[in-house]
From TrEMBL:
GO MF annotations in UniProt: endonuclease activity
Keywords: Coiled coil, Endonuclease, Hydrolase, Nuclease
Organism field: Absicoccus porci
Protein name (record): Endonuclease
InterPro entries cross-referenced by the UniProt entry: Lambda-type_endonuclease, NF-kappa-B_Signaling_Reg, PDDEXK-like_dom_sf, Restrct_endonuc-II-like, YqaJ_viral_recombinase
Residues of the signal peptide: none
Domain of life: Bacteria
Key word Coiled coil present: yes
NCBIfam families: phage_rel_nuc
Amino acid sequence: MKPYNKIKLPETREEWLENRMKGIGGSDAGAILGFNPYKSPYYLWCEKTGRIGSQPDSEAMRQGRDLEDYVARRWMEATGKKVHKSGFSYQSKEHPYMLANVDRLVVGENAGLECKTANALTRTRYDKGDIPASYYAQCMHYMAVTGMDKWYIAVLVLGKAFYFFEVERNEEEIEALIREEHRFWNYVKTDQEPPVDGTDSTSEALNQVFHPSDDAGSVIISDDLTSMLLELKSKQKELQTIQKEYENQIKDVMGDAVYAYSNHANITWKESVSKRFDTSRFKKENPDMYNRYLKKSTTRRFLIKEMKEEEE
């Protein structure tokens, strides 16, 4: 018996986005595990609970969708295998919140294919066999839902190269993934916040969720939190001073030299010419035009200052 229920694919992208909010999809797995550099578990939780909208469609996402069929055809050409679209999404019977909207299924194999498009400036060493952890987690998620034995990944690095990989089913990793997804989905069901982390994605989510007002009042913060943050800021300042000291020592040794080398690093110290728009002068000489082109933006600035003890 199949471990999943088949669900007819939505007809529009809007319906697809709405369905994604009803469970955990393959692209969510990496975020839940902390592997997605653009979306933290907290950001994803805010999306799933409706506190913020889904991240806007980027050009990279659009290109990835548009080139999906091309990537699949390139993979078939390279491997001699055949694939087809399913026409359905899949829902785990044992864990109904786990959903899978797969790119392709491989003909004659109990396997699927994930099609990816990457920027030419990617730092991932595909040529060395590296696979982004979020891609790997997505494949494990699909195998967890569908019960399939393996998943293939095809990656088109735009204007550079084409790579493909095979990911074998790993029961221990699948069980670990299911535990983490179950933990995350429990946060969603109970409307309980997951732990916040130090990523830019979480900062962005917090800025979207909370909005200050003049009559919002104040709250008491734990001394442990504030003292730890103040200590870290103090150490950061100290480390920056030490870093500058070492930089200056190297500059002193280099003198007029532009390049320097050691067993650990290549160093350059060269002149750099930059041009900047003189905003102050333009404002002074063209005040009306300056005001016409001002664009208002609102941000919340976070500041923390240590309270000095008063001298007796």
